[in-house]
Write a structure and sequence with these properties.
By secondary structure, the chain is an all-alpha fold. The protein is 69% helix and 0% strand. The radius of gyration is 21 Å and the shape is globular.
Length: 352
């Protein structure tokens, strides 16, 4: 075996090493953020609801009533450790580590070079919003991992629909139920990746069979979840109107300052000024003749543009401010998309 062949045979381990190194540094940045900050008012509000029994906490007034998965996740830790910020951050730290691993699994499915991994994980590592919220006692710490898991499991469900056991399908269905109940954004977090996964098989001879198989699981998931979801959204809950919020309080209205709106959205999606140059990669699939360009463009619209647009529309209708933490779960998708796009360009240049 030649030296080059030997290097190629060990390439997988090189990828794992680099991804692990970046992820470890990313976790370090998140722990440093936790070290230097104290618990905030919103965190105290969530924690103070846990002082009584579990059912009292479940019935506490919130924006979306029972869709409070993070409170249920933190509750046992609060009962043991009270207001200790390090102990309370344990489930969110674990969630962050799981998110890194799932992102690696998704990258492994699509990437063929180390460049896609480096770009994707570097963007996730240094994203200021992801760093800030990773150890907060708020649901935004968990949403990115739920989104990545939804994408990965949706792809698995679509790809292996014929060989997957019923037990595994229903385990995935159970996870989908938890996603919908975790937060009001759960419906976008689940269905945007699921729609993309289904569209990857659009045009295949087996598409109708796949659609029917997935539809059965989703029908059960919706049957279990929608009552509580609608009750939490439209039933008695803590109103947000009248709190002095403005939709453009942090990010300008697109019809008043379109450039400012784009800067607010895409700047936060990248999350680090020194990495803004990578935004150029967003246009690559629209011009580069690649076999994957349709999937890449579909991914951009289905998992990034559409959910952000719907969140902004909901804020505009309800008079709530539009802020980057609302689409924090889209940020790993955008990092993956840029890594995927830049890798396509690199592969094209190599072939040429």
């Amino acid at each position: 075996m030649s030296f080059i062949d030997y290097i190629k045979s060990k390439q997988k381990y090189l990828y794992i090493f680099i991804v692990t190194a970046i992820s470890v540094y990313a976790l370090y940045l998140r722990l440093v953020e936790l070290y230097y900050r104290a618990l905030g008012p919103d965190e105290y509000y969530q924690l103070n609801q846990m002082q009584g029994a579990f059912m009292e906490m479940a019935k506490s007034p919130r924006l979306f009533s029972y869709l409070a998965g993070d409170s249920y996740l933190i509750y046992p830790f609060f009962k043991v450790f009270s207001y200790d910020k390090w102990a309370l951050a344990i489930p969110h730290i674990v969630s962050t580590i799981i998110g890194f691993y799932i992102l690696y699994l998704i990258c492994r499915r699509y990437f063929r070079t180390i460049y896609g991994y480096i770009i994707t994980f570097t963007l996730v590592c240094f994203n200021v919003t992801l760093i800030k919220h990773a150890t907060e006692i708020r649901p935004y710490a968990v949403l990115p991992t739920l989104a990545l898991a939804s994408l990965y499991l949706s792809l698995q469900l679509v790809e292996h629909h014929a060989s997957m056991t019923k037990a595994k399908k229903w385990l995935i269905g159970t996870f989908f139920i938890l996603v919908l109940w975790f937060h009001v954004y759960g419906i976008l977090i689940l269905f945007c990746p699921l729609v993309f996964a289904l569209l990857t098989k659009f045009g295949d001879a087996s598409f109708k069979i796949i659609l029917k198989s997935v539809a059965k699981i989703i029908a059960v998931v919706l049957g279990v979840t929608l009552l509580i979801w609608f009750l939490s959204l439209f039933g008695p809950h803590l109103p947000w109107q009248g709190h002095g919020f403005r939709v453009n309080q942090y990010i300008p209205y697109p019809f008043e300052d379109f450039i400012g709106f784009l800067k607010g959205v895409f700047g936060n999606l990248v999350g680090q000024k020194k990495l803004y140059f990578l935004l150029l990669g967003m246009a690559i699939p629209f011009f580069l003749p690649s076999r994957e360009r349709f999937q890449q463009i579909t991914f951009l619209f289905i998992t990034i543009f559409i959910p952000i647009g719907l969140i902004f529309l909901a804020d505009a209708v309800d008079g709530y401010f539009f802020v980057q933490r609302q689409f924090i779960w889209v940020m790993p998708f955008f990092a993956f998309y840029l890594g995927w796009s830049w890798e396509s360009l690199i592969m094209y240049v190599r072939r040429r």
